[in-house]
Amino acid sequence: VTPQVIHVEGDPDHPINRGTLCPKGASLEQDILNERRLMKPQVRRPGSDQWEDISWDDAIGEIARWVKKTRDQTFVEKDGQGRTVNRCEGIAWIGGCTDTNEFNYLVGKSMRSLGICYLETQARV
């Protein structure tokens, strides 16, 4: 049996939208079933023009190392006037249009906990 999406609908008991879906939500099936959708992480090494598949563990490890290194190098504790700011100026986050409010809330809290202040969404870009 091949798992597949048969139908996408909202939650009729949801207190905000009463089950209605915006165009993004209604077209979510297309994102899931897209034949060009990547199913595993890929990396393009410096100097290479090719993408290579890597494991999820390796991808998470590489991202964690990159974030730690960049945050350590670009973290600012105080601004030019001596005020405490505790921000990372070397990392930014941009959210996608199909991200849920809950996901964006979690990401926003997570990024801010690292001192990342450059948060944006493609809806405004």
Order of helices and strands: HHEEHEEHE
Instruction: Give the tally of β-strands.
Output: 5
Task: Give the structural class.
Answer: alpha+beta
Amount of helix: 25-40%
Rg from C-alpha positions? Answer: 19 Å
What overall geometry do the principal axes of the alpha carbons give? flat
Beta content: 15-25%
The averaged pLDDT comes out at: 89
Residue windows where pLDDT falls under 50 for at least 5 positions: none
Tally of helical segments: 4
**Spatial ordering of strands, largest sheet:** 3-4-5
- What is the CA-CA span between the terminal residues? 41 Å
Largest sheet: 3 strands, mixed
Write the layout of secondary structure elements.
Elements (H helix, E strand, L loop, with lengths): L22 H4 L1 H6 L8 E2 L8 E2 L2 H19 E4 L5 E12 L5 H13 L2 E6 L4
Parallel strand pairs: 4-5
Antiparallel strand pairs: 1-2, 3-4
Describe this entry's structure for a reader:
The protein has 125 residues and is of the alpha+beta class. The chain has a domain at 38-121. The protein is 34% helix and 21% strand. The chain contains four helices and five strands. The protein has helices at 23-26, 28-33, 56-74, 101-113, and strands at 42-43, 52-53, 75-78, 84-95, 116-121. The strands form two sheets. The chain has a three-stranded mixed β-sheet with strand order 3-4-5. It is flat. The model has no long low-confidence stretch (mean pLDDT 89).
